Amino acid sequence: MMDFIKYISVAFTALSLAFTGWLQYEKFRLDGEWHIDTCTMEADLKAYEGLHLAWRVFLSDDPLSAPVVGDGEKVEEAFKPIPSSGRYPVRLVGTKEINSVSLTGRFEGARRASTGRFEFHPTLSKRLFSGYIPFYQRNADVLEGNFAFTAGNARGPARALRLTDGNPPENVPAFVCEAPDAPIETDVPAAAIEELPATGLSPNPDTP
After folding, report:
1. Domain range spanning residue 91?
2. How far apart are CA 161 and CA 109, in angstroms?
3. What's the domain count of the chain?
4. Distance between CA atoms of residues 103 and 38, nearest Å
5. 14 domain-assigned
6. DSSP letter string over 94-128?
7. Contact assessment for residue 120 and residue 160, using Cβ atoms and an 8 Å cutoff
8. Enclosing H/E stretch for 35
9. Which pairs from 6-9 meet CB under 8 Å and 24+ separation?
10. 134 prior amide bond cis, ω within 30
11. pLDDT tens-digit profile of 129-180?
12. Phi and psi angles of residue 54, each rounded to the nearest 5 degrees, phi first
């Protein structure tokens, strides 16, 4: 009887270790270069809605659940590149679960810093088994989710693309920023940006 209990205990321990190892294996890796797009759908000021911002960051994580950390800078605003002199840094730290990523960011500015949070999950990519049978596979190179910033109380959808040699994955649709009850925005007139209050979101370098 004691031998049977011992065998059961060993078997349970082995299964537990195997299951834990499988969970760790299933956790996607985030190491590398990423491009993060955001689109403000809600904000304290109506003028901010439909504003697109983008960052390029380098993330690092550990397969054994260590915190995710990253550094980067804001590179686009209203789908236009930002000059190097206006690219203020961002510092990210967060956690990663089997199917989700949470990142909190500190966004530096010329006079002050603000904070924000990203919540991402992997997307699903349609594949064909043997060229005929469709199935869906988790795509850890394209993450979708949402964001919230303290600057202007802005929030909305976000997307992160893993970059390889500076290039995004193939066959990924362009990020679209569409304000509520407004036409799709792929650009914002310079005059409209210049009219934004100094205490709001970009182009003020103090905020994300």
Report:
1. 29-194
2. 24
3. 1
4. 14
5. no
6. EEE-SS-EEEEEEE--SS--EEEEEEEEEEEEEEE
7. yes
8. strand 32-39
9. none
10. no
11. 555 555 456 788 999 999 999 988 999 999 999 999 999 998 899 999 987 7
12. -145, 145
